[in-house]
Amino acid sequence: MKIEIQITSQTIVPMPFREEFRGSAGAIAEFAGVVRAAENGQTIDALEYEAYSPMAEGQMRRILESLAERFPCLAARIIHRIGTIPVGETAIYVCIASKHRGEAFSMLAEFMNRLKQDVPIWKVLAHGRGVEQAPSTCCQPVKTAGRSDVRSLDEALGEISSRCQPLPGVRAPLAESSGRILLETVLAAEDLPAADKSTRDGYAILENDPSEALRIVDTIHAADWKPRQLKTGEAVRIATGGSLPCDAARVVMQEHVERDGDRIRIVRREGPSNIRKRGEEMRSGQPVLSAGTMLNAGAMAMLATVGCVQPLVSQKLRVAHFTTGDEIVSPDKKPAPGQIRDSNSILIRGLLQAFPCELVQAHLPENFEQAKQEISAFRFPLSAFDLVLVSGGASVGEKDFTRPLLEWLGFEIVFNRVNIRPGAPVIFGLANDGRRVAFGLPGNPLSHFVCYEIFVAAAVRRLVGADAVGFRRGRLVSGLEEASNPRETLWPGRRELAGDGWSLTPLPWSSSGDVTSLVRANALIRVPAGSDAMVAGAEVEFISADFR
Amino acid sequence: MRILLFAQVKDAIGMAEFAVTVAGRPGVEEVWARLVEVQPKLAAFRKTTRMARNGEYADAKTIFTDADEVALIPPVSGG
């Protein structure tokens, strides 16, 4: 039975097997599972689905294969949509082709029953007016945060991952897709190679042709497509990469042949057939890249290979970054006593380079009213930005206006302090149902770095639809005696791969304003609150700060 | 060992994946014990959640290694 399975975040277009089984199929059964407007007794607008895609595809295939033993069918095509699915749209599409209707109906019904038991796909959230809850089919999620504005590190990360919502994807030209997240699973459109190909310069002959002398009847270059049935005693001159003229052929490399005009004599016959078989690299319909992949050069080359020139990818993020504080001067100026050069603007610009984005940066005056006037005078509306970052002013000093500024900009503040060091006074706000995100970052460069890597990067990954990155485990190369603190600490460190795992060297750190450690830091080591001094060799958790 | 979390388990723990190290060749129960040690909140899901090893549901006979990808599968609700 032919099986096709697709998990996609796109709208499902029904694709019944019409042409493929014309003449052989007597029944084509289609089923669409559609989102209803009622869930748990409340009116909803949409349901959100999540999948463990590789396993879900594997389980669906396994179920279909086992059902095919009882209900022999010709083909099954399953498309399951994930992400946010509005009411009235299709969440799952099934099409079964068979000779007679009985086995198609049975397979369809049984498949849906088994899907709902074993395939790792979940309805995770219902969206609606005044509704934002787990659907009835879920166990209730555990609320991790109380009413207070202060969070533990785990609580803060949990809220960022559950409350930021992925932005809709766009179809972008392949050439502009670098660094973006692929939001659909891409399937091979055709076999690769598309025909049996020669791996040598030589002569194609019938596989079992016993002739010693053969006549050259044609020439095939790499780009040629010249099917013909070879006869015993015939050979075709073929170039490396050339398509074989017929089935049941082999290629004798030219070094094993003596040529005289249009005649050849084979001097060595043993050895491989020198053919790269059709579909050897990939089969038509086989997934070549799964949704969630960050498109690097190799992944883009794969998309080009399968002809996917307009992939569905994450949007370019639009980011606004404001610095505050009269003590900040531009890096090209000499700071007066009491002033420092602005290193945060370039730090944020550099950190954001991990994600394709359009960044606008500006410095705001220290007076709240003046800052509001300045923002109002911008040529662009701030509602056009997916991410707003404000450096400095996150504390509760009288000049610290980041929280009121973000509220004025329409953000609901979720928390304004996390029990960590450095970086405790970090503010997290949301607008537009979690599709616009704001952070107030404490002004010290090291706090900036920590808050970006721990919180902002997690939110950005969620917005663009990338997989979350959790803490990894490694071992300390040297001890951390100053680790003990009533707050959880994220200690700058240098991460290296050593033999059987990651080794972590804590970097010297005197204050949150210390830029020195940033030069070498590529990890943040997690030191639980109230830890004793940590000795060399101790197992620790860390988060990578420069690769994903 | 890479641990993947989904749906309500992911929401409760606050992350989609994390890593633990396991020694030797543990079975399902030993892996669960190790996970609860690292993330105590997982204990609440142990009865309702199935474990998968490298994309296949694990059973009492499954043996894990530190190189495995382990997914915690709460009751599914696709379709």
List the total number of helices of chain B.
Answer: 2
Residue stretches of chain B low in confidence (pLDDT < 50, at least 5 long) are none
Rg of chain A, rounded, reads 31 Å
- Strand tally of chain B is 5
Uncertain runs of chain A are 135-147
**Helicity of chain A, as a percent range:** 10-25%
- Mean pLDDT over the full residue set of chain B: 91
What overall form of chain A do the CA principal axes indicate? globular
* Rounded average pLDDT of chain A: 88
Distance between the termini of chain A: 39 Å
| Strand/helix succession of chain B | EHEHEEE
In terms of DSSP E residues, the strand content of chain B is 15-25%
- Characterize the largest beta sheet of chain A: strand count, sense, and whether it forms a barrel: 6 strands, mixed
Number of domains of chain A: 5
Overall form of chain B: globular
What does this structure look like?
With 548 residues, chain A is of the alpha+beta class. Chain A folds into five domains: 2-141, Alpha-Beta Complex (Aldehyde Oxidoreductase, domain 3); 170-188 and 281-313, Molybdopterin biosynthesis moea protein, domain 2, CATH 3.90.105; 197-276, Molybdopterin biosynthesis moea protein, domain 3 (Molybdopterin biosynthesis moeA protein, domain 3); 317-464, MoaB/Mog-like domain (Molybdenum Cofactor Biosythetic Enzyme, Chain A), CATH 3.40.980.10; 472-544, Beta-clip (Beta Barrel). Chain A is 18% helix and 32% strand. Chain A is built from eight helices and 38 strands. In chain A, the strands form eleven sheets. Chain A has a six-stranded mixed β-sheet, with no helix packed on it. A six-stranded mixed β-sheet of chain A has the order 27-24-28-33-32-29, sandwiched between helices. In chain A, a hairpin with a 2-residue loop joins strand 3 and strand 4 (42-43). Chain A is globular, with a radius of gyration of 31 Å. The two termini of chain A are 39 Å apart. The model of chain A is unreliable at 135-147 (pLDDT under 50). With 79 residues, chain B is α+β, with helices and mostly antiparallel strands. In chain B, strand 3 (50-53) and strand 4 form a beta hairpin. The mean pLDDT of chain B is 91. The N and C termini of chain B lie far apart (30 Å). Chain B contains two helices and five strands; from the N terminus they run βαβαβββ. Chain B has helices spanning 7-13, 28-38; strands at residues 2-4, 17-19, 50-53, 56-57, 69-73. The interface between A and B is large, with 48 and 31 residues.
